[in-house]
Amino acid sequence: YGYAPFQFNNIRALSKLFRETTFNTFLPAVHANVTVLAEALVTKIRFNDTKTIGVEYVQKNEKYFAGVRHEVVLSAGAIASPKILMLSGIGDETELAKFDIPVVVNVPEVGKNLHDDLFVSAGFSIPEDKDVPVYSYSLAPAVIFGSTENSSSVVDIECSVGVGTLKGFPGPKHSFWLWPNVMHLKSKGTITLRSTSPDQAPLVDPKYLTVPGDLQSCITALQLGIDIGNQSSLEQWQQKQIAPEPGTDFESYITETANTTQHYCGTCRMGIDQSSVVDTELKVRGVSALRVIDASVFPLSITANTAAATMMIADKGSDIIIRSYHQ
Questions:
Q1: Architecture of the 118-260 domain
Q2: Positions marked catalytic
Q3: β-sheet with 62-67: strand ranges across
Q4: Between the CA of residue 206 and those of 78, 116, 186, what are the distances in Å?
């Protein structure tokens, strides 16, 4: 396995360093042509036949319509983007019929292909006479990469490290943890509507560990975390293994404790095939003047957290839009 320290872009304000984010880098307030509507809920995208003409939304219990001259860009994320498309009549016609939603275009893959990573937990108690560090980032500023196939060409474990002082952590303060994040799992879930109410969250069925091999990948990743925690170089910090306790059945432990890393993606899959939700210009198939630009367009999961890749899709998407206006 390999080790890499975290790298952050920082900005200085009031003599302090703060982590740079997409919000403070592209602060809407500094752009005269950007208007941000806070606490506004998009209810649907409106069409004239198959041409996108605007967006309906609710703000402070009042309904509004924002018309567009060029196009709508949907960037609500891998859970909300397919929800909004389906509420607007773009999705599997069989699913839309359950709620009497008029079909604008039948795109069966909307809400399908949900990818996510799972993390498993290996914990160790720290002797009470040790001072437990507090990390400003909460997690220790490093990550360990590994492979469930013991191959340098297959990297599918991204292991975070932390201690019991982690903000909000329910475990003992005097403890350290390894959280192997298992990537490239084969199980794929779905996003479907719960009702026609925009206020209601959609039904999310991640279908974790339903494909043979995914559970074994998690077991391998858990074993890696345990092996690292039991290294002789950590003897002065390691009192005993507390999770999973020695002798625990790994399969049961994982199915009971593995959790989402919230790396959701794939539900508005991009592709060159006609069954994909968006094409390589990020345009929604079957309608005009509508693009999706967020993690939902990932065709597959990636070998990392989703943030950087989502930013790159946004950057590329903006280039595509600008180029299209100049043609």
A1: 2-Layer Sandwich (3.30)
A2: 263
A3: 40-48, 51-59, 62-67
A4: 12, 8, 11
Q: Where are the alpha helices (DSSP H) in the chain?
A: 22-25, 77-87, 93-97, 214-229, 250-257, 307-326
Class of domain 37-114+264-326: alpha beta
Question: Rounded distance, CA 281 to CA 36, Å?
Answer: 25
What are the b/e assignments for 194-207, b being 16+ CB within 10 Å? eeeebeeebebebe
Tokens 């949900």 map to which residue?
Answer: 114
Residue intervals in the chain for CATH 3.30.560.10:
118-260
3-state SS class at 145: strand
Tens-digit pLDDT profile for residues 227-257: 999 999 999 999 999 999 999 999 999 999 9
CB distance 116 to 79 below 8 Å: no
Task: Check: CB of residue 156 under 8 Å from CB of residue 184.
Answer: yes
Of the ranges 124-138, 142-156, 191-205, the best mean pLDDT one: 191-205
